[in-house]
Structure formats: C-alpha cells, structure tokens
Specification:
By secondary structure, the chain is an alpha/beta fold. Helices cover 40% and strands 13% of the residues. It folds into 2 domains: 235 residues, Glycogen Phosphorylase B (Rossmann fold, 3-Layer(aba) Sandwich), CATH 3.40.50; 177 residues, Rossmann fold (3-Layer(aba) Sandwich). The protein contains 14 helices and 14 strands.
Amino acid sequence: MKILQIHKYFSKERGGGSVTAFFETKKLLEGKGHQVIVFSMDDPRNEKSVYSKYFIKHFDINKAVGFFGRLRWAFKSIYNFEAQRKLEELIKAEKPEVAHIHNIYHYLTPAIFRTLKKNNIPMVFKLSDYKAICPNYKLFNKGQICEKCKGGKYYNCFLNKCFKNSWLVSWIAMKEAYLHKFLRSYQKIDYFLAPSQFMKKKCVEFGILAEKIKILRNVVDVEDFSEKENSVEENYFLYYGRISEEKGIVNLIKAVDFLKNKNLLRNNKLKIAGKGPQEANLKKIVSQLGLKTEVEFLGFKKGRELKVVIRKAKFTVLPSVWYDNSPLVISEAQLLGRPVIISDVGGSEEMIENNKTGMVFEASDVNDLALKIKKMLEFKKEVRLKMGAEGRKNIIKLNNSERYYKKLMAIYKELIQKDYS
C-alpha cells in the first residue's frame, strides 16, 4: 500500500508526542512492507528523505520580530498556498492511496485538506491535541481548563488572550479558527483518530460527529524499552517532559514543600527533566521555598540518557492540570518498570490501573498529591517494582503494535474501498 504520512516536522530532534507517534507509525508501516511517502517542511535537522524536494520551505513563526514581523507570517500560518502546491506535485508523482495526517498547524495548515480532497485521497487525522476544537490547542488558559470556544465562539480566544497571552497571536488564532470553520476544512476529514476515549468524548461535545472518530491508541516500540536494570532505584522521584503551566509542576513543588515540612520525604528528592517556558519561574519558586536540596533541575534529556534517569527513579509523577490526551511519558515510564502518579483529568486515567500500576490524585489538590507521594515513598522497594512490572504489562497490552497495525490497516482499507469519484 502507498501511504502518505504528513507532519510539519521531519526531525526526531523536535521531540514531543506527535513527532514520536509519527516516526513510530512510519517505522511500523515500512517494517510491514508498505511504501511510506512523507510530506513535511524543510529543515536542516530533518531526517534524510527521497521526498524532501516536495517539502515546503522552512520558516519559524516563533522567530518573527515585532508586530509587522508577526503579521507577515500570519496569513501563511493560517492558510499555506505553498503547502498546497508542493503537495499537489507530490500526489501527481507518487499517487498515494491514503493520507495519514499528524500535526500540521501553523506550517502546512488545514489548507492541505482541500488538496487531498480534490485528488480523491481519503484522509485520517490524528488528534494529538485539541487544535481541531480549540484555537490554542489546549482547552486551557491562565491556569485553568477553558471551554469558552465551544459552539464555535472563537472570539473568546481573542478576548481572553488565549494564545501566548498575546492580543496579536490570539487574534491570528481566532481568525484561523473562523476561516477553517467557514471553509468546512475539518469536514473534509474521513476519520479522526483519537488516542483516548476522553479525546473522543471531548471532540463530540464540541461538534465532531462520533461516527467519524475512531479510537486508536498510540503505538510504542517495546524493543526500545528493555527490562534490563529495571530493579535499580535511587532516592528520588521524577517529573519529565515539557516544563509549562498546564503540566501542574508548581503543585508538585508545593507537595514536596509540604512533605519536607512534615519530615516525610524520607531522604528523597524530586528531579525535574525537561525544558519549557516555565523553567525560570519554577527555579525561582524552589529558591523562595528553600527547596534547592529537595528539588533538582536536570535540564533537557533524551534517548539513552533519559531512560537511565527514568529507570533509577522510584516512580514518576505527571501532575497535569489540563486535559492530557494520552501522554507518552506514562507509556515510557511504565515500559521502564516505573509506577506513575497521575492527576484525574483527561485521558491519563485510561493508561494506568489505580493502586496496581500507579496512583491517581485529584487534579490541583496539593494535599492529595502529597498524600500519594507519601504512600509511594513508604512502600517497600519490592512493592514499587511489582507495580512497575504490572504497568509494563498493561502498556504492552494497551499500546500493542500488532493491534495498532491491524486496526489502522482496517481503517485505511475501508476508506480506500469507498467511492470518492
């Protein structure tokens, strides 16, 4: 089968869940003998590809300086005509049978849906975030979950400065949402692929037809997560991932402060691995609370180095205060034999078995989070290792590559057999 895989980034260095899912899907399909055609944006960090001559020229909307600099990229980030032209060339040359669309926002843009539809190529769209229903893609603003744009009321994005707390960027995001609503861009998609039941439920609430959403869990290459050394523990627990407001790391630090004041840390510390816009503020909070000994910032880690950090942790914590979809960090930590403490919002709860492979706390409740950390620290090492081992079994079952492949191929074949003429 000739399968077109689309993502705005073709670089593993970019990191992030959608990039990982894209490359894992590409690897799986190629391993099964399919021809995977790639469409993306040119970038010096890209992996090599025979299709790179069809990629759009590189640009970075985040590096636009000043009002006019940002405005210059505004229209291109909303509707990219170059992406349409380049994709048209690729389609004529390679004639793919189906298109699998991942993250395209601000670079390839939903403009490509029109091109694919015009060429009668069926489309599946991976719901990696909430951009299809929320202009700022998070359903989260100013420290709180936000659903004000429900019903197509996208003006709320501008009125509340939902995107990067900027009037201009929020205006652009609002215009983007209204434009693609007017063009009925998302109605051109044949099937949406939701990695969690929660994502499907939320999208249906916002108006996407339930029958157009298929549940398809993320795929993880288990061979990249050996069981070796899973019995090693050091005196710390771990948060890793993007360091940003919606991840709830401030509450995690407050929980550590509570446990320290009650002498309940038992000589353990919190380690934080990652990078993001909240890093400087978190370091300031740690200093103000006098927690420099109890909280350590490791910086950005990846690959083998990150896996070593995860393996040596007693457990990991994901204290999100937003609707996490299907976090890759939960899968990774449990494949490396570590229990996970998660908040009760979003799709995270679908990925663990409470009190068997991890624990669930009430989101934004610092005391409940502290209680769960205390309990996990009080467990004997053997109990935590058993929870981690059960977690590994659960994730292998949940993110099984063969199950993922069979379900994905069934979706592809169903669409290819439809009459698009």
